[in-house]
Hints:
alpha+beta
Amino acid sequence: MSYVPQQGSLPARVCQFFLRNRDETLSAPDIVRKFDLATTNSSNVHAQLVAAVNAGALQRDAQGYSAGPKLEEAAGTPGAPPPKARRAPVAEPLDPATVKVEKNVPKPEPARGNKANYRPIIEQLGKGDSVKLPSRHATRLIDYARKLGKVAKPPRTYSLRKIDAQTSRVWRDS
């Protein structure tokens, strides 16, 4: 995809100027004056034109800016608006008459990676004890054990070692 400056932007205006005036060179202060950018300083001009320079639409040297080798390509569709962002599909309108309000429905506990299943294992581990588990469960167990260990009185520490490709072991250190 080729570079096309946004309509009305400084790069678009400068590219259009160089299409009409191929032999000209403009310094950053010249661009500030020519395009009536009274509140803009020269370094801001450079920042605004860097994409056009990188795309080859403009060239920059010690004297300033001039037409680049890909100026026509960039100005071929001057001011083409950027593609519109895709929007999420609009939901069907909700008819309040079809919604049934229910009372006293028990709320289930939030699903948090089956941590409730790991707690009994962690509570059984005494200092120096270990448990051998499939690696995917061992990493979940140790994450949960370390969280519980930080708030335990006295604090507890745990370690994990891989036994083979599918199996790991978790120890309670303290």
